[in-house]
Write a structure and sequence with these properties.
Pfam families: adh_short (PF00106)
Number of strands: 9
Low-confidence stretches: 5-14
Helix content: 40-55%
Radius of gyration: 18 Å
Number of helices: 8
EC number: 1.-.-.-
GO molecular function: oxidoreductase activity
InterPro entries: NAD(P)-bd_dom_sf (IPR036291), Sc_DH/Rdtase_CS (IPR020904), SDR_fam (IPR002347)
Number of domains: 1
Shape: globular
Mean pLDDT: 86
CATH superfamily: NAD(P)-binding Rossmann-like Domain
Distance between the termini: 35 Å
Strand content: 5-15%
Protein name: Putative oxidoreductase
């Protein structure tokens, strides 16, 4: 996939604006983060796989720089890093958001099922993105990393076992990342929401958490240095998994 390169004449941004880098910012939760961060005075840089959607983001938010990049591809992420590292040295916030859910029935023919897609997009993509930009954010005093996880990473959905496994892996990755960042001023905040109201969930008629609600609460939690944030229907998940794990998993399986 081709990366949208900045013009070679582009100079280092030297003003005092803090820089926030958001993966998957062309729609849904990612776009809500882009909007909120622009309003808070950040210089926002984001990526996505669909150039048309990214062009629409730049039209809506002229100050935002967008790049075509699939974070599941290590090569894409390296090109993106090399493109923006000389331009935006003042990175204070990473938002790892890119991903998606695929309904998979493991009893189907293996050749007809996209077994690996959700692992690459939800887990490998987050690891690629955070690992690439981690040196930049650790150079900033009080840098912050936000990771969009899922309650299904704690109690899996029966219709999305691969997605649930990827989010469970992401949950563990966040814990390991915090351990490695001990002794630094960088915090890692993982938000674990229920189903969120985005274009990807438009077909669902059940109650959904709004993307703006998620973003507002998550940015507040990150500012406070919180490690984990459970929202909406997921709010009681840690407690319920301790006192009634079997019942909780049964409820989550079909939610």
């Amino acid at each position: 996939m081709r990366l949208v390169e900045p013009e070679i004449t582009m100079e280092v941004i030297s003003d005092a604006k803090p820089v926030a880098i958001v993966s998957g910012g062309s729609s849904g939760i990612g776009l809500a983060f882009v909007s909120a961060l622009c309003k808070q005075g950040y210089q926002v840089v984001t990526c996505g796989r669909d150039k048309a959607k990214l062009d629409a983001v730049e039209k809506q938010f002229p100050s935002v720089d967008t790049y075509v990049c699939d974070v599941a591809s290590r090569d894409d992420v390296i090109k993106w890093l090399e493109a923006i590292r000389p331009v935006y040295p003042n990175v204070v916030l990473l938002v790892s958001n890119a991903g998606g859910l695929t309904r998979v029935n493991l009893q189907d023919d293996f050749l007809r099922s996209d077994i690996n897609g959700d692992i690459y997009s939800n887990l490998c993509g987050a690891i690629n993105f955070i690992s690439a930009f981690l040196p930049a954010v650790t150079q900033t005093s009080g840098g912050k990393i936000i990771v969009v996880g899922s309650g299904f990473g704690i109690a899996p959905a029966s219709y999305a076992p691969i997605y649930s496994a990827a989010k469970a892996g992401l949950h563990s990755f966040c814990k390991g990342l915090r351990l490695q960042l001990q002794g630094t001023s960088v915090s890692v905040t993982e938000v674990l929401p229920p189903v969120v109201d985005t274009p990807a969930t438009a077909h669902r008629n059940d109650k959904k958490l709004s993307a703006n609600t998620l973003v507002t609460a998550t940015l507040k939690a990150a500012k406070q240095g919180r490690s984990e944030l459970y929202l909406g229907k997921s709010r009681l998940l840690p407690y319920m998994m301790r006192i009634a794990p079997a019942i909780t998993e049964k409820i989550a399986a079909n939610s």
